[in-house]
Amino acid sequence: MNSKKLTFTILAAASILLLCVFCAFFSKGQKTAYAAAEGANITQSGVDFINAAPEETTVYKAGEGSVTYIPAQTDGTAEIVLENAEIHSGTKVNYLPPHWAYAAVAATGDVKLILKGDNRVYLRSQSNNNPLLFYDSNVVVSGDGTLTIDRENASDKNRNVIPFHVRSDNDLSGNEEEYAKSGNFVLESGTISLNAGSASGEGCLMVINNVKILGGKIQTYGQAYGIYSVNGDVEISGGNVRAEEFRWGGVYAKRGDIKVGGDAKLYVSSYKNSSTSGIQAVNKDAKGGNVFFYGGETEVLVPNIGVYAQGEQADVVVTGGEVEAYAEGSGDMLSIGIYADRNVDIQGGSVISGAVNEDGNGSAFGVSTEGSIFVGGGALSAYGSTGAVDCIAAPVCAEKIKIFAASDTEGKNESDYNEDSFGAYKYLKFARTEVLSVTVLPSSATVEKGKTLQFSAQLQGNGDFDTSVAWKISGATSANTKIDQNGLLTVGADETAEHITVTATSAWDPEKSASVSVAVASAAGGASQDNGGGLKGWEIAAISIGAVLAAVAIAVGVYFAVKKAKGTKE
């Protein structure tokens, strides 16, 4: 072999070797396991990452789409990507022997669940279904796709179904601090629809510790509870949340608080049975039980209790947002819009709480407490076919809270409110009336001495406040300069000040006022008379003299022009 062929052979071998090294490096952690590998098609079986998690990125075929598992990186969080996946709950997962369940996707550890496209998970037609099961996990859901968990056939009789289940480590259940480190759920984006049908169990979304809805959309149908936290808080600060057709509660914190705020939209509705409540937080072991509204829009429609703070230390507190809670019962049942075992405290926002009983046999109250009702801000409208409020003592209101009372639930037949008879009214509205600003018009002006100018005041605020103002002036030197109660300013002919100040002060809130500066102009001098055009005598005389001179000039011009013309002709 000559030297040229030897060189070429060596270079070719080196190139092939480099290509192999590059391919091996590039493919590290990128294992693809589509249908070519046994068991890679998980459409019917589902996949168990609790007992057998891949050490490399693995892609599984799921219907026309895929499920990708990316092992935890430096942050300790694994990723599961669902992209147009179709999966059945066919895998029996032993997540905590002897506890097991059939699942479509099961995993442990911290997981970021990413939704792409349209993903569908079907319930097993028999019992013990946990289609998405996460054990000793914290789960964060994101992406712009959808996830629907439902029966494949409407006739399926599924039992004991928890469509989306996030659990903590049961071995740590005796250590509350450690136990709370997992079993948490966060929805950042994406759309989730969970339909348990008529199945028994505990919740459509069942989370051991904290639930946080920051964005996206989640819908629950059926089950005992829609969104259920066993040991933590439920906070909905964004997104769109709907809980429907549940049997006991739409949003339920068994041992924690419920908080709704931000730009969240929450809709809770079900009439499955006479004891169905909407939003319920329970104070257990001196933990939780409060319901806080600090923003967003909330609407609740149930037969029993719309919003329920349960426990001796449990309050309903509203500082912002719009809350509408309605309870509509029948028979001899009790219906209440908002109920607290301790206090209801309205500091802001807008609250409408109503309850009616269709046939009049049962009691229905808009707001009921075992403690007190306090309105310090915002607005509260309460109505009930039995009574607007039901509490031990008359509601307490902050200063400037106006109470509108009526004897019917539509707010008609107005009557004067008497706190000694607070329980007799069927409609009560508590609204803080406040003036936010005062504006004086015109905002600037010049007034001649001896003249007048009309001012007006505009008030902005909340509630049914008094719109009248008190007028005053400052800086004037003449006793003849004054302003009346209607805002008519008169500047005295002998006023020597160059500027005066006009001020309007709210009669409802004297701390709210506005002022404008008025320039004082000297009156025009000399005699005056009405000449139709408003001209002075000397102005008319000047115009007349000018007209005479102009006429003389024209006549002289004509005379010489004629004379010149005659001379030319001759």
From TrEMBL:
Pfam families: Big_2. Coiled coil: none annotated. SMART domains: BID_2 (SM00635). Keywords: Membrane, Signal, Transmembrane, Transmembrane helix. The chain crosses the membrane at residues 540-562. Residues 1-26 form the signal peptide. The keyword Transmembrane helix applies. Residues 434-514 form the BIG2 domain. This is Ig-like domain-containing protein. The lineage of its organism: Bacteria, Bacillati, Bacillota, Clostridia, Christensenellales.
